[in-house]
Structures are given as C-alpha cells and as structure tokens.
Amino acid sequence: MIRLSLRLKHVAVFIGCSLFLAEVQAAPPLPEDMKAWALKSLDHVYNENYRVAESEIKRIIREYPDHPAGYFFYAAILDARMERNHSDSRENEFYRYCDLAINKGERLLEERPGDLWARFFVAGANGAKGGYESRFERWITAFRHGWQGVSIFREILDEDSTMRDALYGIGQYNYWRSAMTKLLWWMPGVEDKRDEAIEMMYDAKENGLFVRQAAAAKLLPMLCNEGDYDQALRIADTMTTRYPKCLVFHWGRVEALLGLERFSGAEQTCKYILSRLTAESVESDNYGLMLCNLYLATAQYELGRYADAAAAIGTMKKLKVIDALERQAKDLLEKAEKIERKARRRLAKKK
Asked: I need a labelling partner for 307 at 20 to 30 A (CA). Which of 29, 37, 183, 329 fits?
C-alpha cells in the first residue's frame, strides 16, 4: 500500500499567556448565558453552520464586551472555517479577534488576577495563532505562539486540575513537538511525549467543557500517525454519526480506511468529500480537491483500477492552490506523479 501522511503535517500547535502565583483565589464561574451561547455556537461549527455560529458568539460580545471569551470564540470559528476550506481568506480578521481576546483578557486579569478562565482565553488566543501558523508550515512562529500557551495552560492545571480544557492545548503541542523531532532540529531538549499527549487528548475529549469535539478531531491525525487506524476509525465513525456534514471527520475517516487497507470504503468516502467540495460555490477549496483526488487515486490504484487512478491524478494536476499552500501542493504532486507512473506502467502491461 502507498501510505499517506499528507494531512498530518497540518497540525495545530497550542497555547499561552502569564501567571500570578501569590494567593490566587478560585476562578469565578463563567456566566450561564455565556457558556450556553458558546456551547451552542460550537455545535453549529461542527454542523458547518458557520454563520449561525458567528451570530451566537456575537451575542456574547454584545453582552460581555470587556470579557475575552466572545473574541476568542469568534476567532476560533474563523479559524475552523479556514481550516475546513484550506484557506487564508479571513486571516486578518482572525488575528484581529485573537488580539482582542488577548488585550481584553489581560485587562481583566489586572483587576482579577485569579480569574483562570480569563487566562484560559488569553492562552487560547495565542494557541489559535500557533495552530493557524502550523497549517502553513511556518514552524518558528507556530511553536513560539504554542509555547506561550502551553506555559500558562500548565500553570492553570497546577492551580485547578478540574480545568480539563487546558489539556487540549498541551496535548497537541507535546504530541507534534515529539513527532516532528527531525524537522524541529533547532528546538533543544525535545522529549518523546506522544503517548502522554494522546492520553491528554482523550481526557479533554471526555471531560472538557468547550473542547470535546475539537479534541476528537485532533486525535484523528495523531492516531493515524501512530498507526492506530482502528481507533481513529472508531472516533471518526462516532463523530460523523453525530455531525454527518462535518468534513473534518470524513477526512479522518478516509485516512483511517487507507491505513487499514479498506480501499473500497476509502474510495466511497473520497467520492462523498469530492461531491461536497465540487458542489460548493462560496469558497473553492482546491487544496482539498487535490488532496482528495490523491487519496482517491491511491485507493483506486490499490483496487486495480489503474485508469481511474490516472484520471484522478489528471484532475488533481489541473488545480491551483492559494499561495500559502503552494509548497504543500508541490508535495502532493510529487506523490501523485509516483502513483500515475505506476498506474500507467500497469496499463501498458495490459495492452
């Protein structure tokens, strides 16, 4: 089988701020209406109802203009939408809301230094920047923002171990920092914390407040990278049942099926993703189309359908991606050309 780890590079890195260690009081709970609006918005995100999700979060911003939560969640929605579309179309707006969350949070912490939720949202905004940078392989800035977040998340957990959402950021950072040791040669003292990081992600998925769906999504590339395709498929199937429109989980399903060499299922899922991407007119996702055609060609080649595989590669080679993804697209094309050459050799032998 031709093994693929193409989407595994596009990882999120996460999260950070500052801390006060003297006589810290317990974090005040979030207002119930704020929490309800945020959770409702997140559900809309994973149903891919992004406009509705944005409108829910704007209620938080209107009602609590001096709190960082609304600005953080709005940035997170923008980020999720761009990640889903392999896009940078709202980058400036995304960074503006991250900065607003940081600024609002830091001002609130001047008044309430023990407010762990305020620190969490400041940390989350820094982490969101790190995740965004990592998708475009801008590793230095990605890990710089990520380390800022991880530092404070660790300190938050030291003060209140019940804030399991903090594990989401730490788990992502620790896993990919460990998994990418060869690439990150310039970072000293990198330990292998992959197993521990995966356990953190499971904990966040089961016990977090705001990060359960996101932790499930981010576990998929980790598990595939570890070769645990069965578990990745179980999570993907569970989440696609709950959120049938959410392409993030369908992508994870394809990767798990390819890893398990269940090529008919992988082909079927690829065709579903392609039908969704080609039907959309709001924002084209040429990188997603390239990647899906490559996965499709891989499955079809392994099924012995060499002409179909070559045709999928031909479709893929006609697409142009955004400038920020040109390097990643080049990697896809190199893999595609290998499949195409093998497919054409097989076809030539049949003649």
From this structure: 329
Chain-centroid distance of CA 144 in Å reads 18
Written as one string, the DSSP assignment of 260-276 is TT-HHHHHHHHHHHHHH
User: Across-strand partners of 149?
Assistant: 16
CA distance 99 to 103: 6
Residue 170: partners with Cβ closer than 8 Å, 6 or more residues away: 14, 15, 150, 153, 154, 157, 197, 200
Tokens 């359960």 found at: 212
- What residues are paired with 308 via a beta bridge? none
Residue whose C-alpha is closest to residue 4's, from 282, 237, 270? 270
Spatial contact of 132 and 146, defined as CB atoms under 8 Å apart: no
pLDDT digits (tens, 9 = 90+) for 24-66: 344 578 999 999 999 999 999 999 999 999 999 999 999 999 9
Output the CATH code of domain 8-215.
1.25.40
Q: At what angle do helices 247-259 and 68-84 cross, to 10 degrees?
A: 50
Is there a contact between 12 and 221 (Cβ–Cβ < 8 Å)? no
pTM of the model: 0.89
